[in-house]
Design a protein that fits this description.
Blueprint lengths: L2 H16 L7 E4 L3 H15 L5 E4 L2 H9 L3 E2 L10 E4 L3 E2 L5 E2 L6 H9 L4 E6 L12 E5 L4 H14 L6 E3 L15 E5 L7 H9 L4 E4 L1 E2 L5 E6 L2 E6 L2
Parallel strand pairs: 1-2, 1-4, 2-3, 4-7, 7-13
Antiparallel strand pairs: 5-6, 6-12, 8-10, 8-11, 9-10, 13-14
Helix pairs in contact: 1-2
The structure holds ribulose-5-phosphate.
Ribulose-5-phosphate binds next to helix 2 and helix 4.
Length: about 240
Amino acid sequence: MNTNDIDNLKRAAAARAVDFVEPGMRLGLGTGSTANHFVELLGDRVRAGLAVTAVASSEATQALAQKLGMTLSTLDETPQLDLTVDGADEVAPDLALIKGGGGALLREKIVASASARMVVIADDSKLVDVLGRFPLPIEVVPFGLKATCGHIERVVAEAGCPGPLHLRHGRDGHPFVTDGGHLIVDAALERIPDPLSLAARLAEIPGVVEHGLFVGIAASAIIASAAGIKVLQHK
Ligand code: 5RP
C-alpha cells in the first residue's frame, strides 16, 4: 500500500468520526496527519452551519482550526469536553495506545482526559497485537536529561522491555522541542508486556513530564482498511 492509499484510509476514518459530532458539542482536536483530516472535514461541516466549540491539542492543530474558521476555546475556559478525536501510532486490541509520534502527547493526553469520550481514528497499519513496535515517546524536562534517561532505562528493563533510548531531533538537526518546551526521548521497546504497569512506573520518574502510553482512555477506535471501516469499542 502506498502513502496515498494510507492517506485515503486516514481520511476515511476521519470522515466516519465526523458522524459522531453533534451540534453544540465541545470537542478536543488531536494532532497529526489523521487528526488533520478530521479537522478539515469538521471545518466543512462548520462552514455549512454546524456550531461546535473546539480545544486544540497542539499549536499546529490550533493554527489549522483557526484557518478553517472554527470557534476555538481553551481548557481554562472549557475544562470539560464532550468528545476528543485523535490519531495514534499504535492501537492494541483493548484500545491501549501509543501516541506522541507527532510530539504532542502531553497536550493530547490532557485534552483526551478532559473529554467524556475519546475516539481514535487510524488506518489499519496502526493495529497491533502488543504495543511497542513503535518507539514509545517519553516527554522529559531538559534539566537532568542524562539522569532521567538512566532512570527510564532502569524502569523499562525492570518492566521486561529493555530498549535503547534516542533523544528526538527535528529536521533542523536540533533536539525536538515540544509545545510545552520539553524534550522527547523515544524508547525502542519492541514489546511492552504490561502497558498499564509501565505507564505507572514511568509516571513516577522525576523529570518525566508524560509518556505516550494511553491506557484506558480511548472509548472507541475507527479503523479504516482496504476492506472497509470497523469501529472497535473499549470493553
Ligand atoms: C501526535 C500523535 C499522532 O496522533 C500520532 O503520531 C499519529 O500520527 P498520524 O495521524 O500522522 O499517523 O500522537 O503526537
